[in-house]
Design brief:
little secondary structure, single chain, globular, 5% helix, 1 helix, 109 residues
Length: 109
């Protein structure tokens, strides 16, 4: 299994399930998803960077916080988790990061 070294491909990042044992590597650096609900992304072009109204805390849609579920499922055109929201081209590296110049280290965000 190959992991990207330097650049993140938003077309494939967290779209495919990881086949490695979760305890055998760093999950945050792995380009594959480990939890279908928490960190899986649907293919780009199928959703926007805006969070789904059914999954946003304190939204006008009444639902228990632990059991929130979008009735549209994967056909919904909005982000269903923070990974889909953050790693969407509309948001990912879309603004200058103030910590970029700290110690000459590239910013991860």
């Amino acid at each position: 299994m190959t992991h990207p070294a330097k650049f993140l491909d938003l077309n494939t990042f967290k779209v495919t399930e990881c086949m490695q044992d979760a305890s055998s590597h760093n999950l945050k650096k792995c380009p594959y998803y480990h939890d279908y609900k928490k960190d899986r992304r649907r293919p780009l072009g199928t959703y926007s960077s805006e969070m789904c109204q059914y999954l946003v805390p304190n939204s006008s849609i009444k639902s228990s916080s632990s059991n929130k579920k979008c009735p549209l499922g994967d056909s919904c055109d909005r982000a269903h988790n923070r990974v889909e929201e953050f790693y969407h081209p509309d948001k990912y590296k879309a603004k200058f990061c103030s910590s970029y110049l700290v110690k000459g280290k590239p910013c991860d965000y």
